Amino acid sequence: MPELPEVETTRRGIAPALAGQHIGGVIVRDSRLRWPVPADLGEAIRGKPILGVRRRGKYLLIDLPDGSLLIHLGMSGSLRVVDPAFPLAKHDHVDLLLSGGRCLRFHDPRRFGAVLWAPGNALEHPLMRHLGPEPFDPAFHGDYLWRSAHASRRAIKLVLMDGQIVVGVGNIYANEALFRAGIRPARAANRLTRKESDLLVATVRDVLTEAIAAGGSTLRDFVDSEGKPGYFQQRYFVYGRGAESCLRCQSPIAEKKLGQRATFWCPQCQR
Known about the structure:
alpha+beta, 4-stranded antiparallel beta sheet
């Protein structure tokens, strides 16, 4: 599933092409996404200027004067700016036509993504109003994480992946950040020390920053706005490396399910 680095990579890729454009119309070929594409979407947004493109967690927001187009890439979605005559692929479900003659094309083989209209303040939309701070927001700091962790007996990895505590730290990057911080994913969150909380906030930011610079990760479907894969998977220390040797100590990487998600750690490097 595309996580924060992949969504941010997509945002940076499409934003220049959308700047200064008006929406000429919408073509919906298949509305059956995770939530149905609104039948009146074209009527709601046609002719309006695009004010900007931002990201909130794993959501993309295309801002218009009276609301925002809310897009989620789901498990397999991608966005590309193309000529409307560019040959259609099987799962090209939605085209957002632009006044400059191109279109923003939403592709989603598994149809777990979303294209929705959020009138008014998009941050008050039911899908977004309960989201926690961004990982790069000053509000996400060591003391905040320590207090959040000490309110829970859940595994620390599950706390990191809780979007009401901090948004966008998905499974891949939670595994990698916990390895760098030397913390076992299954450790009870309320056993986290203040020093470890400070370190974990820093490693989360470091991992996400490096992943964005590498264009995110491509394990199966993700491509950026130019159809290119991400490369951060070449830098994984633990994710997807079960039974392989730790790159630091040569011990076998352990693997198990935690919260129904694949979890990887080094039993020697992480405590």
